[in-house]
Amino acid sequence: MQLNQHFRDLEQSYLFSTVGRKAAAYAAAHPEQKVIRMGIGDVTLPLAAPVITALHAAVDEMAHKETFHGYGPDQGYEFLQQAIAGYYAQRGVSLALEEIFISDGAKSDIGNILDLFGPDNTVLVPDPVYPVYRDTNLMAGRRVVLAPATEENGFLPMPTPGLHADIVYLCSPNNPTGAAYTRAQLKEWVDWANREDAILLYDAAYECFIRDPNLARSIFEVEGARSCAIEFCSFSKIAGFTGTRCGYTVLPGGLARDGMELAPMWLRRQTTKYNGTPYIVQRAAAAVFTEEGMAAIQQNLDYYRQNAAVLGAALTEAGVTYYGGENSPYLWLKCPGGMGSWEFFDWLLENAQVVGTPGEGFGECGRGWFRLTAFGDAAETREAAARIAAALKTLNA
Predict the structure, then answer these.
(1) I need a labelling partner for 119 at 20 to 30 A (CA). Which of 6, 63, 246, 297 fits?
(2) What are phi and psi of 97, to 5 degrees?
């Protein structure tokens, strides 16, 4: 028997698993201390009332023969596709329903989409960025090259002369840095991809946090993107579905490479390996885009935005350089005193009992940087901010 030797190329543990273990070990050793976790980007508010109402109604349907639902349509129920298409239309993006594929989340789709591409493609991944992009390609044995995302380029890598890659990952707003591309910047990527016959895999999981009108919320706001881009989005951040699981992929009709059209390939892949998102979850997701749903969702998003403002104020008070927190739920801070990322992780846990995420876990260019999330409870966020500010002041004492 032979196993997949490419797993040897991965870090021994997934980043967030390591963070969780270290935090748990500290908590067990210090039961008298209250540890505040601000490392993993999990939401803390409950599902909005209109979503819960729709979920309950769908559950009740499943209790009666006349309204019971078994296997659903291959690409998701039309009512949810229509709701998503309407959401995009508000931004001037027109989508056909058959271009929208419902799934159990963007993370799954970002990994599964690789089934469409051969193993010899070169993959360009920003550094730092969400680890799933790099890890899923390393598992498949693809060549991965890194595009440095640094303070100097605003954490937004751009095409460079002579650059060649077959697949490029873009995440905007970025996880972990919080940086977001303008339409003009995305236009440069789209034009490059069309010249190079490359495919852009665009992760828009955090688009709901964008308020700056100069920033794109979908790559399909950019002319030419339909011939080179696939977009992934999620209900986890816009509506708190981290435990409910629902997302979608937008794959334009007519997008083709190597003599094959990608949308039919994706449909074939999904119908072979996936049986669809539960009916009750899709009903709940559709409720997000109702007038009542969007009003409730915006209240939740504003709650997290206020958390980000509280954290940002604490970092500013302590004289720490940071980015993000405005069009993103993440704050990306420069580790004080020249500390390394894991060194600062340990220091912050020991001195403030606050857990964050070491930047180098997202890539080599994240060394010396640190991520905090605004998805926490508001009271705990205020407490954590006060602890962080107090601890940081001791460094300058």
Answers:
(1) 246
(2) -60, -35
